[in-house]
Design brief:
This protein is mostly helical and about 475 residues long. It has 2 domains: about 210 residues, MFS general substrate transporter like domains (Growth Hormone, Chain: A, Up-down Bundle), CATH 1.20.1250; about 200 residues, MFS general substrate transporter like domains (Growth Hormone, Chain: A, Up-down Bundle). It contains 19 helices and no strands. The longest helix is centred in the last third of the chain and has 39 residues. It is globular. The protein starts with 17 loop residues before the first helix and ends with a helix. The relative contact order is 0.13. The N terminus is likely disordered.
């Protein structure tokens, strides 16, 4: 069984006194050792199973909507194009800015989570996102719709970042891998399940009704946060007064940390970690890995509605389950590899070994891109499109599992910060591809385009991951020599 690792620990303020430093060390020890238990009723780990389960289910509902709701309209772009009298290609770009702002929204959330606590930064962006979806539903033109969708992406991404500290706070280190895997699964199926459901609803009514249903779903999820959400921040060794539940919604008394210093500290930390060599290189690899799959997700509807396939809305929506199956298989492959590689090298473990999990998925993704592109280029059966898309998603998810595992294990004390940075890189790729891929395909054809994408993918992953492996190996050797002494 894989050893649990400390995914998240509290930071030490630069201006901390010696006594507060000792408290921080005690906190770290108690929260990274699964054998240490506290009898404090305020400790979230001592909450009842029912309370923790309801909170976790509420977190999953928010997390499923983060990506799932952002690409909800992927199967409705044709109908929207007809409604607004614009091209289908132009209509599909309504999601692009929202996808981009998902990355930046997650980064902005990190200092706020640390300063004000988990609950208010989880609840209020959720409320704002619900109204942004409502605004998109009532929009009468593409520009207004796109503006609301962009703000939806900015505020709706928070669950992708806040889930990690909540899981850390509520569960012991032995439970972290299992709970993180369950929570992370919602991100794998959301981008494909959301558009499928949206298409099914839109086929029986219209796109506005479909977005109205999404607004209602956000309302239910928000109500769950209000009813079952609790502030989970807890610092053993510090006197944490019993807080007012109403006050906790507004960030009053949640952390008892100096707001200004905490915000400044974490803003500096996020900026510093963006440019750390291993995170920079693996972030670029994540961006390239996500670019092409997100390009497929946001543009496939236009191809499926056109000859030779001429799918109706139901058929095009059902095709999204190829992406769901591929994503789940990719998660299983990544999970299996991480367990296997740790057992194989447990006696001489190095975190960079997890990065070897990108090579086989990269091959699957490259083959999937070529299968997908050539099937469409030669007008072959739609099964080829489905199989190619599934192979692409297997590679995408398995690669990201390997990279995320490496990054979180390398920087355990900054796990939330690292998660936000990787999220930013992947959304940057998803934002860009929607603008150049349709014109590229129109100019060169799907066969050449997706073949070129496969070549770019392989080259980029090799050129970014290999230097990190070499750098980590050299650092490990230098550390060994330093410990050996003269």
């Amino acid at each position: 069984m894989e050893k649990p690792i400390p995914f998240y620990t509290m930071h030490e303020m630069e201006a901390a006194s010696p006594s507060s430093s000792r408290e921080t060390q005690e906190w770290k020890k108690s929260h990274t050792d699964s054998g240490v238990e506290s009898n404090d009723r305020l400790d979230p780990r001592n909450w009842s199973s029912a309370r923790k389960t309801l909170l976790f289910v509420s977190l999953m509902s928010s997390s499923l909507l983060a990506d799932g709701a952002m690409v909800w309209g992927g199967t409705l772009v044709t109908e929207q194009a007809m409604d607004w009298k614009i091209s289908i290609t132009h209509s599909a770009t309504s999601m692009n800015y929202g996808i981009l702002l998902q990355g930046f929204g997650g980064v902005f959330a990190v200092p706020l989570i640390e300063a004000y606590g988990r609950l208010p930064i989880w609840l209020w962006p959720q409320v704002i996102t619900m109204f942004m979806v409502l605004g998109a539903t009532l929009s009468n033109d593409w520009a207004t719709f796109t503006a609301f969708r962009s703000l939806q992406g900015l505020f709706g991404t928070v669950p992708q970042v806040i889930g990690l500290p909540i899981i850390h706070d509520m569960y012991t280190s032995a439970e972290w891998p299992r709970m993180i895997n369950i929570w992370g699964t919602t991100f794998l199926v959301g981008p494909f399940l959301g558009p499928a459901i949206a298409g099914y609803i839109g086929a029986g009514t219209d796109w506005r009704t479909s977005f109205g249903v999404l607004t209602a779903i956000y309302g239910v999820s928000t109500l769950m946060v209000i009813l079952f959400g609790y502030e989970t921040y807890y610092a053993p060794g510090r006197k944490m007064p019993s807080q007012s539940r109403l006050a906790s919604y507004f960030g009053v008394g949640n952390t008892n940390l100096p707001i200004g210093k905490t915000l400044v500290y974490w803003c500096r930390t996020v900026v510093a970690y963006v440019f750390k060599f291993p995170l920079l290189m693996t972030g670029i690899a994540t961006m390239v890995t996500f670019t092409w799959p997100i390009g497929i997700t946001t543009t496939i509807d236009a191809f499926l509605h056109s000859p030779p396939y001429s799918f109706d809305t139901i058929e095009a929506s059902s095709m999204r389950f190829a992406g769901v199956i591929g994503a789940l298989c990719g998660w299983a492959c990544g999970h299996f590899f991480n367990g296997w590689i740790f057992k194989r090298h447990s006696s001489s473990w190095r975190t960079e070994l997890r990065l070897h999990g990108v090579w086989l998925p990269m091959g699957s993704m490259a083959c999937g891109l070529m299968t997908y592109g050539l099937t469409m280029h030669f007008g072959k059966h739609w099964i080829g499109v489905a199989v190619g898309w599934a192979m692409v998603n297997i590679g995408m998810v398995a690669t990201v599992v390997a990279i995320s595992s490496y990054a979180l294990e390398t920087f355990p004390q900054q796990a939330t910060c690292v998660s936000a940075i990787l999220n930013m890189w992947r959304t940057c790729g998803g934002f860009a591809v929607g603008y150049f891929q349709p014109a590229w395909i129109q100019r060169n054809g799907t066969g050449l385009v997706f073949g070129t994408q496969a070549a770019i993918l392989c080259t980029a992953v090799v050129l970014t991951i290999t230097p990190v492996l070499v750098w980590e190996r050299r650092r490990s050797r230098m550390a060994t020599e330093a410990n050996a002494g003269p």
